[in-house]
TrEMBL record:
InterPro entries: YhfC. The keyword Isomerase does not apply. This is YhfC family intramembrane metalloprotease. Coiled coil: none annotated. One of its GO terms (molecular function) is metallopeptidase activity. Keywords: Hydrolase, Membrane, Metalloprotease, Protease, Transmembrane, Transmembrane helix. The keyword Signal does not apply. The chain crosses the membrane at residues 6-27, 34-53, 76-102, 123-141, 182-199, 206-224, 230-250.
Length: 257
């Protein structure tokens, strides 16, 4: 049986995935006059550079190409690769978005808007794909209908693995996964502002700063995925960097004054 606490945490994850982006849009709409065009560009950048290009490279490097797949079984190389890949694809995508799609919209509010679009759609998709799917599977397990419902589409060993993962995962991990969306979206806004500052002032070095910071953010979760770092340490790093992102967002008022 999947505990009720775990199911509750999944429900909270779904709520946060929808509520946080909406709350940020409403808040910044009132305080800065948010740009819906920039939000759309942020969503577009996320899909093209993260979901298509980056994931396409991951498939080739980590699965299709057996040589590189063997290299990245090393947890340090895996974490370094994962962090740099996310940083390069997503931050270059932001730079191109600001340069070509928002060349007449490069105020601070546009940087915030693109960050909300990018981080908001990410939070929403994680909530829907991970949260809703988890709730459905957990309900099936508790009703004794998982094998019956998925038997035609998945082999028995995959169903057993899914079932064991949901039952054996500690309740705290579900809570941490849901709450992680809070610092994550603030970091996406901060990255967008750093990149925009570089675009406005024609200083490519700020793109490099954003790439390295993004790589640092993704390094800890990658080390956790490689079973080299505990979840609590990885989440602590994310929250510390999330607080730093809020400082950057506040400080950015001076950058664009």
């Amino acid at each position: 049986m999947v505990s009720q606490g775990s199911i509750t945490a999944m429900i909270v994850q779904v709520i946060l995935g929808v509520l946080i982006p909406v709350a940020l849009v409403l808040y910044f709409r009132r305080t800065t006059g948010i740009s819906y065009r920039a939000i759309g560009v942020g969503i577009l950048v996320f899909f093209i550079f993260s979901q298509v290009l980056e994931k396409g490279m991951h498939y080739y490097v980590l699965s299709f190409n057996k040589s590189t797949a063997a290299w990245f079984k090393n947890p340090w190389l895996f974490a370094l690769y994962g962090g740099l890949a996310a940083g390069i694809f997503e931050e270059v995508g932001r730079w191109l978005g600001f340069t070509f799609l928002l060349k007449n919209r490069q105020q601070r509010k546009d940087g915030i808007s693109l960050g909300i679009g990018h981080g908001g759609i990410e939070a929403f998709l994680i909530a829907i794909v991970s949260g809703v799917q988890g709730i459905i599977f957990a309900t099936m397990i508790n009703a004794g209908k998982l094998e019956e419902s998925l038997g035609a589409g998945l082999p028995p060993e995959q169903i057993a693995e899914l079932k064991n993962r949901l039952i054996q995962t500690a309740q705290s991990e579900f809570w941490l996964g849901g709450l992680e969306r809070i610092p994550a979206i603030f970091m996406q806004i901060a990255f967008s502002l750093i990149v925009l500052y570089g675009v406005r002032n024609r200083k490519v070095v700020y793109l490099l700063y954003a790439i390295l910071l993004h790589a640092l953010v993704d390094f800890a979760p990658a080390m956790y995925q490689a079973h080299f770092l505990s979840l609590w340490v990885a989440e602590a790093v994310i929250w510390i960097l999330g607080i730093g992102a809020i400082v950057v967002i506040v400080k950015s008022k001076k950058w664009f004054a």
